Amino acid sequence: MQSEILLQSLMEQTRQIINQVEKLREYDLDALTWRPNLNSWNILECLEHLNLYGDFYLPQMERKINSATAQAEPEFKSGFLGNYFAKSMLPKEKTNKMKTFKDKDPINAKLDKGVIDRCVEQQIKLLELLSQSRKVSLEKVKLETSISSLIKLKLGDTFLFFVNHNVRHLKQIEKLQNEMKNA
């Protein structure tokens, strides 16, 4: 895939995510913390989960982009593992449940509307990083994963995984909003 087309697509998806998250400011705290059952995340917990991943990936992306010496290529080819991780994050018709790492699981955390602001700020930072990455290799720049520092993904695959993960949890929020209306 052409690197520029990939980055443009990810930037557009991120802008849509920002718009969706900003609309959540209209909800009161009761709606943002409503859950269909004791084991489900509420809206704020979904966003905080994204924030926790942002805390891990965004600073690393920034460091790697700023220190990269490898120039951008016109084409990006996803790696085997990166492609697998990115695709596994895409929402499916019937949601494929995934176990969340304990340090990324915000269930029952005391959260407020500041979670929304932090999420929007992180998405804006992601837009900046996507733009800055036009000058560096999406293939040769590698990042550690949250699974293990031994598993590294290409910058392009990390962006794909990260944005798909955001999309996945925004779909989860949409589902929660529909369940809330019907409760």
Secondary structure elements and their pairing?
Elements: H1 3-23, H2 29-32, H3 43-67, H4 80-89, H5 114-132, E1 142-144, E2 152-154, H6 155-182
Antiparallel strand pairs: 1-2
Number of helices, counting only DSSP H or I runs of 4 residues or more = 6
What is the averaged pLDDT score? 93
Which CATH architecture is right? Up-down Bundle
Order of helices and strands: HHHHHEEH
How many structural domains are formed by the residues?
1
Low-confidence stretches: none
CATH fold annotation: Four Helix Bundle (Hemerythrin (Met), subunit A)
Provide the spatial order of strands within the biggest beta sheet. 1-2
The general outline is elongated
Structure description:
The chain is mainly alpha-helical. It has a single domain (3-182), classed as Four Helix Bundle (Hemerythrin (Met), subunit A), CATH 1.20.120.450. The protein has helices at residues 3-23, 29-32, 43-67, 80-89, 114-132, 155-182, and strands spanning 142-144, 152-154. A two-stranded antiparallel ribbon has the order 1-2. The mean pLDDT is 93.
Task: Spell out the key features of this protein.
elongated; two-stranded antiparallel sheet; mainly alpha
In short:
This protein is mostly helical. Helices cover 58% and strands 3% of the residues.
